[in-house]
User: What shape does this take?
Amino acid sequence: MTNFRIKLSLFLNYFVFAILLNSVGTVILQVQLNFDVSKGSASVLEAFKDLSIAIASFLIASYVNKIGYKKTMLIALGLIAVMCLIIPSVNSFLMTKLLFAAAGVGFALIKVSVFATIGLVTKTKNEHLSLMNFLESFFMVGILTGSFLFASLVDNNNPKSTTWFNAYYILGGLAVLAFFLLLTTKLDESSIQEAEQSKSAADDFIEMFKLILLLLVLVFIFSAFFYVLIEQSIMSWLPTFNKDVLHLSTSLSIQMASILSASIALGRFLAGLVLRKMDWLIVLVVCLLAAATLVVVAVPLTKNITGISVNSLADVPLVAFIFPLIGLFLAPIYPAINSVILSNLPAHRHASMSGLIVVFSALGGTTGSIITGNIFGAYGGQTAFYFSLVPICILIVLLFVFKRLQPKAGTVVDLKTAGGH
Assistant: This one.
């Protein structure tokens, strides 16, 4: 029962931050309308979110073991509850930047703690891989929920309306609920605390740097970076793509973008089942090839779209339904490679490794969004989405290298013996 409550808490924590963080695509669209900012200027919201994630992870991840996973998650939930309850009454472009900066710090704390906690509540590599996929699929359910939440509060008849900010009251309430669920749930961290007793905070920080020296970890870092670059470049700019290229109304643009979140959620749920029986490399490479094929097939379909504004679901062009299905194929990659690297390390290294995951995922997300935003502004949405083919090809190569470097079954990486590789 204890494991059930803590797993439920992990799912709810992830759900809250999924809605919050991935509202950035909606907010990028809305701030252009509300505050008259350019696409390039709006793209910095991704940087405020992701760079704060990266910086917080880099500075704090090595201390999470000493603070405790539960306390760290409670701090994150408390911070974000306060910010969400404040922003509707103090809405401005500056405040959205501060909100995403706070969200980034909170998510860094949550993600490092959640990833490390998974190692405490699972017993085998397959169980770890499966729970990671289910957790990440629920993250996408949160994104899907957020899309409909924000779309329901957008006023199509008044582009300057700020009623969509009221969605953050609901998010603040969910954060409070998540806080009290975790507060009343027991988490046994004794095994981690015992491993940390003889180590200082400086030792933990140095240990995180030592992980980077492992070739296996280095290849993983690049793999995570390029995956998130692909995902965020599409996810953050799909609402704008729907509005500017497909000429959908604002609310329809946000709602149709939710298909991407739904397809990723479904893909990760299915992957949680498939990866129990099939080799992860085969599954991921096939998925990436399918994703590349979909880009090549779907993007050209947008060239014949008329300039007439679409306000009804019945008039939405077919490509608006087809392209977001790329999420089905991108879905398994991130949780699978995260699980592979974590399950190849001893449990007390998971917080440090999770810190690196969060840092380089955040850098990948920022890079992808800013590059896509600038290509979008200069050359149009079709060219911006064709750009995803480049990191997809790079990622396929990296996955083969990652597989070759993976330790034999039944072994874990030991920093003392692997430090020179």
